[in-house]
DNA sequence: TTCAGGAGTGTTACCGTTCCCAATCCCGGC
DNA sequence: GCCGGGATTGGGAACGGTAACACTCCTGAA
């Protein structure tokens, strides 16, 4: 900067003013400084700037299982929005959901003086930990548990999505809808269970038992084998598309046709679920958009923390080929 | 820091020495300082440290399509390894593969004074751009094009993987192997084509034409429909698992059984490809490990730039249920 | 006994910005 | 012609660390 000032024949302070677009700089001076910066290929030292302003222009993201499609897409959406807002994003992941690793991740980001934090926070443990985070540091949680007042959240209305799916199946004429649930300790999985159960109860349908396990295809496959053995099962709502994939395989191997014998609905609308066998009817959620929204909320919160707002996004049902009315014979049974 | 020094009754310099684990500090003094730091909940200001040492303890990652399973997993592996090495990672993605956006991403990271950069660089454009990056900044490219001397790379031997897959099918007794290729401008796709073609040529088998398109299931579905119409097709090697998913659907809809009528092999071994219909035989690559290796290589390069090493990882074939010997009748044709 | 040399500590300068305040210039109004 | 006040600019002093060097002990060898 010193060199720029010398070359332009002004003080370092004036150079700083040009950089920060201070209004009180004569047009001519500004031009001279800009030219000098150009010719010296000058770039400001962010560390020095951070030191004095206490703003790093960096945002932190803490996340869990960021290799899954959902979190990865949110990350993408966040980074996209952050870039246009002039921020760089740093990531800190943790391996398990004890409070300590979460707080350590927050701490790592704080050390690096991030201006705010977005937590891809599928579980209560994370938001709980976040509430213990020091005041003065803006935090937003995205995609998971709601109901934490202290931290603004952006999330999908999982219950509404589950209602959509369940109602779709009931409307097709199914007596009831079975559910392969996600892991019990994930709020998203719980909310989907709730939406499903409420819809069945409201319709006066029987509520079959569930066995919460995990999010992956294996769970779907194992539980799908039991469901396939039960001729009363004509409709299955799966907690996500991967589970649905496993269920489809189990049904197929048991010789039960989809959708003729059994209808299947997923959740998430992963990129290729339209190419499952058969193409999967599922509940679509736009993860990247969720990420963008969370960033907007964070910036808002950083500007004026008076708004502990919560954003709720409603998902949509995408009907493809895995659902149909139950077979006439069976419907009568 | 001043406060800590005062509380411990030493100079700020001694506090600094304790922080940096300088050997020449008396045990007793160190204890006193540590205690003071503890009681004041002191944490060093990384910006100030960066300002003077010119080391930010931050690593940059530039990436493209980070929402895909492969890149997301590499990111995960990198972050994991970076954390244990005491680095934070910042990400900068770009939307298209022109040199400019790539260089802009690099520039953003430079502004933030990253100590090194890992490029999740599937295409030549990226590594080319990287070579234009300023000297003095260590770069490593992972998972994509090789053959760039200037930049150390970590990548999977795609040709070897393709040979594995093709040879597996030939060994089962198939006359030749058809291929649904990935996009032509991705080196990984090209290498897989090469490995496939070389194996066929070496075996004296006919080399069917290919139509490079994209990585997604739709491509597999569309091209799979053509392949399904051709009774001479008994074995298909797909450039990745998603394409394979589309091919499986097309074959199924055309009434051709897998593996009885047609064998299918994928590439990547995505989490759920073991639950496709039928479970997919595929070439496994460990993306997270790739990420970890690239980080190790970067640290090495940062320590002493005399080693422009390249690391090549050999993938493995995972045989599941989508491949079998061709039907007897057809084999004789 | 003297002195070289290393351990332990403090003093000062500096990293590259921004902030605060003062200084100068220029303009219009009286 | 004098003066108040905004526009424009410059001169330090931070910000919170680390590096370089100097200084004081203390030890052991000559």
Automatic annotation (TrEMBL), chains A, B:
SMART domains recorded: HTH_LACI (SM00354)
CDD domains tied to this protein: HTH_LacI (cd01392), PBP1_LacI (cd01574)
Keywords: DNA-binding, Transcription, Transcription regulation
Gene3D superfamilies assigned: 3.40.50.2300, lambda repressor-like DNA-binding domains
Pfam families on file: LacI, Peripla_BP_3
Transcription as UniProt keyword: yes
InterPro entries from the UniProt entry: HTH_LacI, LacI/GalR-like_sensor, Lambda_DNA-bd_dom_sf, Peripla_BP_I
GO molecular function: DNA-binding transcription factor activity; transcription cis-regulatory region binding
Top-level division of the source organism's lineage: Bacteria
UniProt KW Transcription regulation keyword: yes
HTH lacI-type domain mapped to chain residues: 1-53
Record-given protein name: LacI family transcriptional regulator
Organism of derivation: Actinoplanes nipponensis
């Amino acid at each position: 900067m010193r060199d720029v000032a010398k070359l332009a024949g002004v003080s370092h302070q004036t150079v700083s003013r040009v950089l920060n677009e201070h209004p009180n700089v004569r047009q001519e001076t500004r031009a001279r400084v800009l030219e000098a910066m150009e010719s010296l290929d000058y770039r400001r030292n962010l560390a020095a700037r951070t030191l004095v302003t206490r703003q790093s222009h960096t945002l932190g993201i803490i996340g869990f299982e960021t290799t899954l499609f959902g979190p990865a897409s949110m990350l993408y959406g966040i980074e996209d929005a952050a870039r246009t807002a002039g921020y760089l994003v740093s990531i800190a992941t943790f391996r398990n959901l004890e409070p300590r690793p979460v707080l350590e991740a927050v701490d790592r980001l704080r050390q690096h003086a991030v201006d705010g934090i977005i937590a891809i926070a599928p579980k209560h443990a994370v938001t709980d930990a976040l509430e213990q985070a020091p005041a003065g540091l803006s935090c937003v949680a995205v995609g998971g548990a709601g109901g934490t007042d202290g931290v603004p959240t952006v999330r999908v209305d999982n219950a509404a999505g589950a209602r959509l799916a369940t109602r779709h199946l009931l409307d097709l004429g199914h007596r009831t809808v079975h559910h392969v649930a996600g892991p019990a300790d994930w709020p998203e999985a719980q909310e989907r269970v709730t939406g499903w159960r409420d819809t069945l109860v409201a319709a006066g349908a029987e509520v079959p038992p569930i066995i919460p396990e995990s999010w992956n295809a294996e769970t779907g496959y194992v539980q799908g084998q039991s469901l396939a053995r039960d001729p009363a099962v004509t409709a299955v709502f799966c907690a996500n598309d991967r589970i649905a994939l496993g269920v489809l395989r189990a049904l197929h191997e048991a010789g039960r046709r989809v959708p003729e014998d059994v209808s299947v609905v997923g959740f998430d609308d992963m990129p290729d679920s339209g190419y499952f066998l058969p193409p999967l009817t599922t509940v679509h959620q736009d993860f990247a958009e969720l990420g963008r929204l969370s960033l907007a909320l964070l910036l808002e919160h950083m500007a004026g923390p008076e708004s502990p707002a919560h954003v709720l996004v409603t998902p949509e049902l995408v009907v493809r080929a895995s659902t149909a009315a139950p077979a006439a014979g069976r419907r009568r049974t």
